[in-house]
Amino acid sequence: MEVRPGKVLLDEKEIAARLDGLAEEIREFYGGMPIVIVGVLDGCLIFLADLVRRFEMPLELALVKVRTYIDEAAPQKPPDVPMGELGGVAGRHVLVVDDIYDTGATLAALKSEITAAGAGSVRLCALLEKKREHEQEVHLDFCGFRIPDVFVVGYGLDYAGRWRNLPHVAVLEGYDETPPVV
Ligand code: IMP
Ligand code: MG
After folding, report:
1. Helices 45-52 & 12-30 angle (0-180, nearest 10)
2. Are 131 and 114 in contact (CB under 8 A)?
3. In tens digits, what is the pLDDT along the chain, a chain of 182 residues?
4. Dihedrals phi, psi of 136, to nearest 5 degrees
5. Cβ neighbours of residue 120 under 8 Å, at least 6 residues apart?
6. C-beta atoms surrounding 155 within 10 Å
7. Domains of the chain, CATH where assigned
8. Which end of the chain is less packed: N or C, by CB atoms within 10 Å?
């Protein structure tokens, strides 16, 4: 079967409505305190752009590209967080924004590296959380939607680099293996 986006899981309107609520939760939580938002590339791109435009509070944006290794020989290797790209987070209140909480490896690595860099606080936000047993449990402070344990594309999420541009989130049809990490 050809691999392609199938059933729409979340349409544009649902996403926009949830983002209004999520932005409100975040605004209330920080109460006007200046924050640094760390976006996790590439998947956060569209979510982040739509989310930050709902804020009027003082914030700085930093972007980080986290590399995940899929390596049979070293499956336990944690994702590499290039902290040098992040600038100073010491003493700052950091909100990490990612596309999806899947195994938890990415968010767990970011939380521990940013904490170790001396951030005043580190909170985690993901558009999606998969309902599954996460290999690394993290506390998601802000979550857009909890979805079934299926592979999804669109609204920033890709399969082998494709379909990030879809305005909605769709289930990937014909998919039955671990995707290449881009
Ligand atoms: P983690 O497994 O929680 O560390 O997530 C690592 C990365 O895998 C995420 O940031 C996504 O880029 C990617 N990923 C996990 N599940 C999906 C999916 O269903 N669709 C597209 N990308 C995914
Ligand atoms: Mg990806």
Report:
1. 60
2. no
3. 789 999 999 999 999 999 999 999 999 999 999 999 999 999 999 999 999 999 998 999 999 999 876 655 555 677 888 877 777 899 999 999 999 999 999 999 999 999 999 999 999 999 999 999 999 999 999 999 999 999 999 999 999 999 999 999 999 999 876 555 65
4. -125, 115
5. 91, 92, 93, 94
6. 26
7. 11-149 (3.40.50.2020)
8. N
Give residue 42's identity as a one-letter amino acid code: D
- Residue 127 token pair: 């558009």
Atom of ligand 1 nearest to the CA of 151: 19
Write a three-state SS string for the chain: CCCEEEEEEECHHHHHHHHHHHHHHHHHHHCCCCEEEEEEECCCHHHHHHHHCCCCCCEEEEEEECECCCCCCCCCCCCECCHHHHCCCCCCEEEEEEEEECCCHHHHHHHHHHHHCCCCEEEEEEEEEECCCCCCCCCCCEEEEEECCCCEEECCECECCECCCCCCEEEEECCCCCCCCC
Probe ligand 1: pick from 47, 77, 99, max atoms within 8 Å of CB? 99
